């Protein structure tokens, strides 16, 4: 027995009106409406019900036919090794000769000396005595040119030089300056 929505869908299709809410909500309404508008549902082709089992049988028959084609062996395939001897012919060799490699030039060692100029490598503190104990009297920025006045002296594991700079005289550690 058809549902009331199915009958309602058929009536609306015959009258040419469509209730969108019913059409999208009730399956029976849509089925009744579509049967009038599109005609009765077409039967599904029955050959598909036979095609799938037939393909399955063909695949099984092919597998049965091919099952004896080759026997898998668990034994390794023997490897035949043939050794061929290639005669070695002597090729002419040239006597080795020495290539003179010039020695790299020795860099000129710049030495700090009294009366010479030096340049600061990084910020360096100027001290009143050749020791880290004294309070710094100033500091020089990297790249400043200074004049060596006296030295060297040893103190507190440093070598100290008395220098003259734009801010005055004082002692600086050798590790922070370089001869110019």
Automatic annotation (TrEMBL):
Superkingdom to which the source organism belongs: Bacteria
Protein name as it appears in the record: SH3b domain-containing protein
Record-linked InterPro entries: SH3-like_bac-type (IPR003646)
Pfam families registered for this protein in UniProt: SH3_3
Domain SH3b: start-end pairs: 124-178
Gene3D superfamilies listed in its UniProt record: SH3 Domains
Organism: Herpetosiphon geysericola
Transmembrane regions listed in the UniProt entry: 47-66
Taxonomic classification: Bacteria, Bacillati, Chloroflexota, Chloroflexia, Herpetosiphonales
Keywords from the UniProt entry: Membrane, Transmembrane, Transmembrane helix
């Amino acid at each position: 027995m058809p549902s009331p929505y199915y009958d309602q869908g058929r009536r609306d299709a015959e009258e040419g009106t469509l209730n969108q809410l019913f059409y999208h909500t009730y399956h029976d309404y849509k089925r009744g409406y579509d049967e009038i508008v599109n005609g009765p549902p077409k039967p599904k082709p029955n050959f598909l019900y036979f095609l799938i089992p037939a393909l399955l049988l063909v695949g099984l028959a092919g597998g049965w036919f091919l099952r004896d084609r080759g026997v898998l062996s668990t034994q390794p395939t023997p490897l035949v090794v043939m050794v061929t001897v290639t005669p070695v012919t002597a090729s002419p060799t040239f006597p080795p000769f020495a290539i003179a490699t010039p020695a790299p030039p020795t860099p000129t060692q710049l030495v700090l000396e009294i009366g010479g100029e030096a340049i600061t490598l990084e910020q360096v503190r100027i001290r009143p005595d050749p020791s880290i104990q004294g309070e710094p009297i100033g500091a020089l920025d990297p790249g400043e040119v200074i004049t060596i006045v006296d030295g060297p002296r040893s103190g507190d594991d440093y070598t100290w030089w008395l220098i003259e700079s734009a801010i005055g005289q004082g002692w600086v550690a050798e590790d922070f300056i370089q001869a110019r």
